[in-house]
């Protein structure tokens, strides 16, 4: 009798290009941490002093995006939030324009590349083989 092979996670796999491990996976982990650091640093002020105002939305988006990217959970969504936030801040800002554009480019890169093997997404949605005999 022939073995039947089922592939789990094919629908979710379409969201990510691959889940590379080894040196490419380490590079994606480093890219995720570099992308999350400024977002989390920006939201530290929000956590320290909860003040209602127009800035609260920016700080909340930065906090959520930073956490998602750092953990590697829903990475394309977190990276898109970073891209949108940094592009909006770049258009609004009269100084440090290049910094926002660089962070937006990092967010775009993470949207296209995916989270890598060392992420929650890889644990939840990575390719698995189930062989039934």
Structural overview:
By secondary structure, this protein is mainly α. The protein has one domain (19-123). The chain has six helices and two strands; from the N terminus they run βααααααβ. The chain has a two-stranded antiparallel ribbon. The longest helix has 27 residues, at 22-48.
Quick structural overview:
With 133 residues, this protein is mainly alpha-helical. The chain has one domain (19-123).
Q: What's the overall geometry? A: elongated
The number of helical elements comes to 6
Helix-strand topology string: EHHHHHHE
| DSSP summary, beta strand count | 2
Strand content: 5-15%
What secondary-structure arrangement, pairings included, does this model have?
Blueprint: E1 4-8, H1 10-13, H2 22-48, H3 55-71, H4 75-92, H5 97-113, H6 120-125, E2 128-132
Antiparallel strand pairs: 1-2
Helix pairs in contact: 2-3, 2-5, 3-4, 4-5
Please give a handful of descriptors for the protein shown.
single chain; 133 residues; mainly alpha; two-stranded antiparallel ribbon; 2 strands; 67% helix
